[in-house]
Amino acid sequence: MKNINGVNTEYMKLPLVEEFSTIQGEGFHAGMAAWFIRLAGCDVGCSWCDSRFTWNQADHPMVNTDVITDHAIASGMKSAVITGGEPLIWNLDYLCSVLRKNGVATFLETSGAYPLSGEWDWICLSPKRNKPPMEEICRRADELKVVIKNSSDFEWAEEYRKKVKNTAHLFLQPEWNSFGEIIPHIVGYVKLNPEWRISLQLHKYMHIP
To answer: Which CATH topology does 1-23+32-130 take?
Structure first.
């Protein structure tokens, strides 16, 4: 693989779905402004996924990473959220290096199903049954966010609570299409297990991306 100034060119293009400024809608940083970078490609295959349009990498252009980072830096946002799809399908070392050198904090949203690359100021792990996360990412996660669709998902959440570090922030998030049915169960569960907090998809209520 050709190198430019010591950087493997394999890392210098990424399949970009979209990039935009918004308000974070989920988890620990909900309500904060951020620049979102959504990458294509995912083989985890959640039945309730609300980002299916990202799954097929071939549907989206490979974009020079310098173009992506230039846009993030020019946005003036203090943080960039790298999401997908499943962003760790791609090597994110170069992307993170450029962002961090320019004062942009790097936040990762991942299922943890692929090896960790990149340098991160915050890692949000959202484990999925179809393709469970790697142990390294469980240990590194700053935040555990588990989507709850039915009552069996509480047991799944507890399984991964034991695998993340003690300082990780714990969130249960109702699956959007099952919200009315499942939210009373989540409320009851958090009352009995107050180490957990509830994450709501605020961006959907605000009708923003």
So the answer is: TIM Barrel (3.20.20)
| Tokens found for residue 130 | 């179809």
Please state, in angstroms and rounded to a whole number, the distance separating the CA atoms of residues 172 and 78: 26
Using CA atoms, how far apart are residues 8 and 24, in angstroms rounded to an integer?
32
What are the extents of the domains in the chain?
Answer: 1-23+32-130, 142-209
- d(C-alpha 64, C-alpha 58), whole Å: 16
Residue with tokens 């549907």: 59
pLDDT band of 10, cuts 50, 70, 90: low
- pTM to 2 decimal places: 0.92
Give the Cα separation of 209 and 196 in Å (integer).
26
Residue ranges of alpha helices (H) inside 86-129 are 93-101
Give the pLDDT band of residue 1 (cuts 50, 70, 90). Answer: very low
Residues 6+ apart with CB under 8 A from 198: 171, 172, 173, 174, 186, 187, 190
Maximum C-alpha span of the chain: 56
